[in-house]
């Protein structure tokens, strides 16, 4: 099946599973943690946006690092391919097998090991669900340093392996900064203990970085130590409606009214400064998809663009005053058409629901071509009208939203059903456009199965060669997440 679907990818020379292999896994994990029935394996074979699928007939559910080590040592020796999987919310096809790779799911590795109220360091197993960790930390006056729409399903190990960004990276930074240490199992089963909980530790190479963002190709993350910030005592949220951005050319700066958006971002960064926690945007067609498919209500009448500005702070009066002054200033300067601000928990949740559930609404709209681009902030939205112009009516919907404060645009193109013809119109154009503007072809979702052959648009030949050398060093038999991340040798 996959061979027809992905004609450009050939199954590697990996050993197919037989009864003896399954008996070994059952001996190691017990009968109940080795899934082999097609109906039990189905959900592990299909990705969240149903873009890709594999046909694995074996899902393994270890509970401990030692069990992961036992599985990998066995698979490495026999050259059995393995696909690591967390919450399976990845958006680039990295989390599901391509052919019959064994799925190693971290779903049962969900133990919280320690929480230090003073240092704010949390240590836990890789399969803990992000939202559960955040709820746990709330009891300690702390929070997770990342938040994303998939929080109810994604695992911290998956977050680390994709170096997930999310809604508040602007304030709390990326996981390369917040992960203090981790434990990982190498392809040959060796356990690598880099689980430092120290803030400062410059003793040689920072090996943890090999695993943060390498999408399961260099090892399996089994435990993480994360620096968690205090939970804010005061939260404020503003939802703004704006006029249309007029984009004159693709390569020069977006001008005229996009300048007003840039002014808002600049002002938000300077006037809200240390309390600014999020700066997001969505366009009209994105709002439309959420309102139509999820029946959520927009807090504002229709506008071409919307922005979310959030603050996290420790003093309600101070923060509210700052937010109000900021809003008054942008209104006085006529930078926005309309806006609403709140610090009421339920109202804030309604607004965040609109933003966080965009992915789900788009999924209900049709087949989704999803692009996750970093662009210089002055060119932030330029790809959307360029694509609208290029595709005309051959797409059902072409919309943009994303992490404006971080220059990360999500371009989504929805069609009734997948055709190669439309894909050829989108790719490689979307990547060439991004590369010309010196952007990144993957800001936060990763490379996975969908994008390896386009990596050169963002990475030099020398960088790609070094990545391949690292892969050979870490996983000489190539068993970990094959067909993903690294481009094939031509
Ligand atoms: P999976 O999808 O299971 O796996 C992702 C990759 O990591 C795969 O390559 C897999 O092989 C590997 N992997 C998983 N666990 C391990 C492990 N323990 N060791 C080694 N490799 C492993 N992403 C963002 O960056 N920002 C967002 O704002 C964002 N919002 C999202 C909203 C929605 C509604 C959805 C569906 C997805 C969103 N994503 C976002 C994408 C996705 O949620 C993230 O990439 C997330 O970090 C993936 O975590 P996961 O546990 O689901 O990993
Ligand atoms: C988001 O910011 O909502 C996520 O990255 C998911 C997506 O791009 O759809
Ligand atoms: Zn995102």
TrEMBL record:
The keyword Transmembrane helix does not apply. Its main location: other. It is an enzyme of class 1 (oxidoreductase). One of its GO terms (molecular function) is FAD binding. It comes from the Eukaryota. Residues 52-231 form the FAD-binding PCMH-type domain. Signal peptide: none annotated. It is found in: Peroxisome. Its EC number is 1.1.99.39. GO terms for cellular component: mitochondrion; peroxisome. It catalyses: (R)-malate + A = oxaloacetate + AH2. Keywords: FAD, Flavoprotein, Oxidoreductase, Peroxisome. Homodimer. Belongs to the FAD-binding oxidoreductase/transferase type 4 family. Catalyzes the oxidation of D-2-hydroxyglutarate (D-2-HG) to alpha-ketoglutarate. Also catalyzes the oxidation of other D-2-hydroxyacids, such as D-malate (D-MAL) and D-lactate (D-LAC). Exhibits high activities towards D-2-HG and D-MAL but a very weak activity towards D-LAC. This is D-2-hydroxyglutarate dehydrogenase, mitochondrial. It comes from Exocentrus adspersus. The chain holds residues 127 to 616 of 616 of the full protein.
